[in-house]
Amino acid sequence: MTKFRKSRRRMAIFVASFLLVTGIFVFTPNDIQGFLGGVGDGKFSYGGCSCHIGEAQRGDGTMTLWASTLEADANQEVTVIVNVTETVLTNDKIIGVFLLRAMTGSDSDQPSEDGWRIDSDPNGNENNYVIKNATGLGSPVSFQWVLLAPFRGGTYDLTARAQHGGNLNSWFETGEVLTFSVTGTQLISTNLTLDAPEEVNEDEQFTTSAWLTNEDGDPLEGFQVDFFRITTYGNMYLGSNITDSDGTAYHSDISYDIGIFNIEARFQATSTHAPSNATAEIPTIGEVESEPFLIGGAPAVIVFLVFIILFSVWTTFGFVIYQLVRINKEGKIEEGGNQ
Amino acid sequence: MNEERRRFIKFVGLGAAGVGIGLLGFSNLSKLLTSAAALGPNDLKMRKWGMVIDLGKCTGCGACTEACQAAHFIPFNQEWIKIYELHDNPLAPSYHFPRPCMHCEDPPCRNVCPVGATFRRDDGVVLIDHRICIGCRYCMVACPYSARYFNWGDPPHTPEELAHDYSPEEPWPHQRGVVEKCDFCVTHGEKGMLPACVIGCPSGAVYYGDLAEDAVSNGKEILRVSEVMRVRQGYRFKEELGTHPRVYYLPRG
């Protein structure tokens, strides 16, 4: 009887140990499990690009703004120069400058929101954000934009914000604001309609058509329409075409991957016609490549089955060992046994 | 004999009860065993982060490496993007070859990790969870690009680094006994920002973007990947290994 009690005690210790180990294994993963979805993928875009924006401390430097004129006619070229002089530079000596209409920290701060069009930025592109390299401590860095004044008359502000350092650790901004007085002009308003396929297959060629009309709905022939793909880091130029007698300009393209092909057709203003644009989303469908079986994680059912099988095997093994251990040695008298 | 059998049944019964209790937390267990790869948010699925490096523009200045080290507080002996000087043609001058982690579509490092610390997100970024990493360094052996580094000792820390909350996407503060590598500045991409090496490159040789959009940017211009690969005859490093790297190279002029 005593032997049976001892055996039960041993069994209880064994089961308790098993439960303890299982419990530790199962209930502690909160501290050791992997990626739980990251920090979210909300986009933070500022003034068209945000390469240098981050939560950071203020750096040290001065910025001045200069404009070729503060009084302009509609669509007139205006040159704006931003001079940045820094007293502190990070190792990579990079300075990024945003040209902005306001500093609210949102996309609506872009000059284009007021009708400004960037003819050329300091790199010869059409961006309101530009990165340049500083040559050394305290050396001024100059950023020059050529803009076309808005068509609508009124007063408009332009200012700039600078960021330096590739490690997002410091920034500063200017308080200086240039105020422009623009004399408006009466342009023929235009309307652009973009017709795109509702859905395309991966690697399939598709055609979009942009229909340009005037305010009365009459087609406009012989005008250039530009096509862009809207991407994470800005608009990618796809091509241009001239409107035919129906006022339609075509663009053919291929979507190489599944996802959304965001396309924009843009009619740039002329001396007689106001600008217009249109966008469309073209879903691209295809077969999603899946990970090889059991790579990147086993299905829960398989994990469960493996667990049960291993448990059964080891339990049986443990029981056999237990039975072997309790075989009496020669000459030992078993208590309470049949004598 | 009957008693023995009864005991055995009891034993198995209790064991099964233990398993049952254990399975109450089964979801956590399976999460642990299945590592992290399947846990990414749905909206990452359509992203395909990738990089294009124009070898014709790279001057080997090392600014990308420095920018990367500063942004990630990397220990001094590591270069998550390393510049090699190659001279593979005796009739041509040598050239510079920046080598970040390739973020392979079939990463050997992930496949050999015995504890699932290295995982691949749905957007294709290969990351390491240092809370799981046991420092066995199998992944370093498996990586054909030598893009992984091991922290043999406690790296020096800055207060700013120590104030940061660790996550596999922003893997600092750094710690001893784990393997580290380029994380593609994945949190930058999610915010519409460019990686530190791209911003830091003064010649604009490094481009980054969503390959599903067929576009990469160096902050100054946007390239159409399919077109530039065709025109410039782009390639991937050690393509023959079948790892399908997400980093493409444009050969010199």
Shape of chain A: elongated
* Poorly predicted tracts of residues of chain A: 26-58, 165-169
Q: How many strands in all of chain B?
A: 12
Give the helix proportion of chain B (percent range). 25-40%
Instruction: Classify the helix fraction of chain A into a percent range.
Output: 10-25%
Enumerate how many helices of chain B there are, as a single number: 9
Largest interface: A-B, 82 and 88 residues
Question: What's the end-to-end separation of chain A, in Å?
Answer: 15 Å
Strand order of the largest sheet of chain B: 8-1-12-11
The termini of chain B sit apart by 86 Å
Please state the overall shape of chain B, judged from the principal axes of the Cα atoms. elongated
Mean pLDDT of chain B: 86
**Number of continuous helical runs of chain A:** 2
Helices and strands of chain B, in order, run as HHEHEEHEEHEHEHHEEEHEE
The percentage of residues in β strands of chain A lies in 35-45%
Oligomeric nature of the chains: heterodimer
Question: Biggest β-sheet of chain A: count, sense, barrel?
Answer: 7 strands, mixed
Structural class determined from secondary elements of chain A = alpha+beta
What is the overall pLDDT average of chain A? 77
Taking pLDDT < 50 over at least 5 consecutive residues as the criterion, the unreliable ranges of chain B are 24-43
Tell me the fraction of residues in β-strands of chain B, as a range.
Answer: 15-25%
